């Protein structure tokens, strides 16, 4: 059964909200991406002197007060503030008023990687410096991975199925896939996507364990996916929130415009992810092509062949071993240099639970305008990767379908196909 033939028709993205290092709105982000304007810089959330990582992607000038209900601000973490603002923007963009819809037919599924790290650090500091009586009651919920989903649900009266997916970068695609599943089983509108924010001392130190963070202090060189001298990735905050609906439900409320459609998805697990290898396990001599298999299943789910994909938004891990793995998988599915590939996250850093939703939003913008954004900062792609990596400047092309690839710490793998409106 094709996507169009399913009950309710295509699964549409009718609203987008972006809060990212590249900009606080959808169009600000898109113009920064096309211009190659980086959101990376020296960390300002805390003094990084003495830490091995000093560069990150921050949402400059973001202020929750006045944009998030006053009582909610001290009860929640910055990660949730970012999502609440992005959700308001996405619902406005979709022209959807939750008060006019059945509360049990609206759902929320977000992705999260670190939860409320900064909030948790602050409360732990209070505990150790001042004592238990100084720990706020909201510590029990503000750090929790599902806090953002819960706050969105409460704020907009969305009482249908709600949940959170915790699979680091891959979780962002899995959350969108779960939204699609809910829409096919009775929900009328699902808020999905995700944000993350772990730019505090505790959050950064926790990320150092896997050895993938870039320690370069030059923002222009700190994160260069697929480069011959890729030094690792830089952390970032922010992400994107999407409003998804079936074509039938959108039409019923008078919505005729969309950003595009969610057409296919697949997920898998790679037991030989390089995080596992650094923990002492050895790679199997005949390693199964996990990522390639996931991509093939996502295409099959969309009813597409490899030749139907016009652009790939890569995971772009930024380490030679993981970049090589991804390049091999793409070459296996599409052929050497068989499809344009881009990794615009080089402008934002890896946003973890918010990164893949931002890639999906960027892919939808690319489909809208027929432009493949370039991978800023990567001047010399490794020739051994056999990728048609778009560098130097954006590339204008007729675009119908985009593939978004995401991998998470520990072996999570996911791929999502989106189609033009």
TrEMBL record:
Keywords: Acyltransferase, Transferase. It comes from the Bacteria. InterPro entries: Beta-ketoacyl_synthase, Ketoacyl_synth_C, Ketoacyl_synth_N, PKS_Beta-ketoAc_synthase_dom, Thiolase-like. CDD domains: CLF (cd00832). Residues 8-420 form the Ketosynthase family 3 (KS3) domain. The keyword Acyltransferase applies. The keyword Acyltransferase applies. Belongs to the thiolase-like superfamily. Beta-ketoacyl-ACP synthases family. This is Actinorhodin polyketide beta-ketoacyl synthase. It comes from Streptomyces hydrogenans.
């Amino acid at each position: 059964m094709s996507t169009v033939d399913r009950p309710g028709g295509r699964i549409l993205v009718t609203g987008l909200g972006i809060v990212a290092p590249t900009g606080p709105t959808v169009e600000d982000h898109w113009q920064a991406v096309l211009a190659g304007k980086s959101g990376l810089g020296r960390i300002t959330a805390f003094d990084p002197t003495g830490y091995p990582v000093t560069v990150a992607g921050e949402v400059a000038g973001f202020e929750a007060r006045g944009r998030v209900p006053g009582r909610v601000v001290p009860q929640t973490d910055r990660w949730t503030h970012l999502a609440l603002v992005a959700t308001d923007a996405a619902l406005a963009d979709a022209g959807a008023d939750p008060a006019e819809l059945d509360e049990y037919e609206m759902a929320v599924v977000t992705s999260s990687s670190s939860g409320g790290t900064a909030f948790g650090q602050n409360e732990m500091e209070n505990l150790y410096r001042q004592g238990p009586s100084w720990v706020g009651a909201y510590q029990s919920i503000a750090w929790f991975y599902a806090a953002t989903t819960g706050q969105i649900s409460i704020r907009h009266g969305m009482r249908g199925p709600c949940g959170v997916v915790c699979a680091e970068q891959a979780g962002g695609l899995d959350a969108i896939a779960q939204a699609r599943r809910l829409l096919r089983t009775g929900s009328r509108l699902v808020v999905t996507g995700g944000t993350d924010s772990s730019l505090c001392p505790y959050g950064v130190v926790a990320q150092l364990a896997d050895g993938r963070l870039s320690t370069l202090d030059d923002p222009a060189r700190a994160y260069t996916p697929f480069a011959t001298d890729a030094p690792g990735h830089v952390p970032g905050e922010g992400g994107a929130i999407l409003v998804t609906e079936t074509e039938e439900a959108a039409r019923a409320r008078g919505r005729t415009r969309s950003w595009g459609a969610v057409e296919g998805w697949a997920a898998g697990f790679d037991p030989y992810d390089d995080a596992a290898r650094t923990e002492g396990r050895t790679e199997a001599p005949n390693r199964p092509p996990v990522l390639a298999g996931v991509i093939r299943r996502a295409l099959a789910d969309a009813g597409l062949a490899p030749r139907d994909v016009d652009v790939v938004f890569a995971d772009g891990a930024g380490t030679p071993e993981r970049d090589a793995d991804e390049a091999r998988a793409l070459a296996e599915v599409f052929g050497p240099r068989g499809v344009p590939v881009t990794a615009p996250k080089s402008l934002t850093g890896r946003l973890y639970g918010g990164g893949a939703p931002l890639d999906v939003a960027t892919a939808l913008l690319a489909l809208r305008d027929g432009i493949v954004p370039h991978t800023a900062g990567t001047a010399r792609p490794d020739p051994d990767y056999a990728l048609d990596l778009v560098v130097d400047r954006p590339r204008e092309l007729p675009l119908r379908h985009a593939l978004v690839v995401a991998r998470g710490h520990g072996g999570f793998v996911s791929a999502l196909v989106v189609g033009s409106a």
